[in-house]
Design brief:
Blueprint lengths: L5 H6 L6 H9 L1 H25 L4 H27 L11 H7 L8 H24 L5 H28 L5 H16 L16
Helix pairs in contact: 3-4, 4-7, 5-8, 6-7, 6-8
Length: about 200
């Protein structure tokens, strides 16, 4: 399913653990709830970047489009939730995003570059997880997740292109740094299931 996006597959350090896939299938109500939160947060992040970097023309263009698409995805998830009588509840954030973002450098343009690289990993991982789940879900959810692959892959590309554009030096070392972090966050056990959590803890 991800064969159409070889650069995305190569970018990620690993596949989602099978134990996480099984955990997701056992917690589909929570999956939908956290998915909705993820889409809303993605739109919010894009808008925040537009406010912070008003002089970055290409960023404004790409983030504006991304924010609209993420809000549309939120609406689509929320519609499915309402149809299934799934309440949209507050959820604690997973350790995934914070585990990446706490390593963002504080000076510019390094701060922007790191933020873009993290955005690329978040979008790429979301795409990979939708693809991993789709074959195991009911027809409605499967079709929905498959329909998200193209836009999530494009968001990954947009973030990575912006990181390269606004960096004063090659970004390979920073990508490798966050790649190692991302692998640990995806493969190390978690106590709570989330869209971007690791596999379940045995405790």
């Amino acid at each position: 399913m991800l064969s159409a996006y070889p650069e995305l597959v190569e970018f990620l350090p690993c596949k989602s653990p099978e134990a996480w896939v099984n955990w997701a299938l056992e917690n589909q109500t929570l999956l939908l709830n956290d998915h909705a939160h993820c889409e809303k947060k993605a739109a919010s992040t894009a808008m925040s970047l537009m406010y912070r970097y008003v002089d970055r023309d290409n960023l404004l263009h790409k983030m504006s489009r991304l924010a609209r698409e993420e809000l549309l995805h939120f609406e689509q998830v929320h519609k499915i939730m309402r149809k299934r009588d799934v309440a949209y509840d507050h959820l604690s954030a997973s350790r995934y995003a914070d585990g990446l973002r706490k390593h963002i450098r504080t000076h510019e343009p390094a701060r922007l570059v790191d933020t873009m690289i993290i955005g690329a990993f978040v979008e790429a991982r979301s795409c990979e997880r939708f693809a991993a789940l789709a074959p195991h879900l009911d027809d409605e959810l499967s079709k929905f997740y498959i329909s998200l692959l193209k836009s999530e892959a494009r968001h990954f590309e947009d973030y990575l292109e912006l990181a390269k554009e606004y960096s004063n030096e090659p970004i390979d070392d920073r990508v490798a740094f966050f790649r190692d972090l991302e692998e640990k966050l995806i493969t190390e056990p978690d106590e709570e299931f989330r869209m971007h959590s690791g596999p379940p803890s045995l405790m």
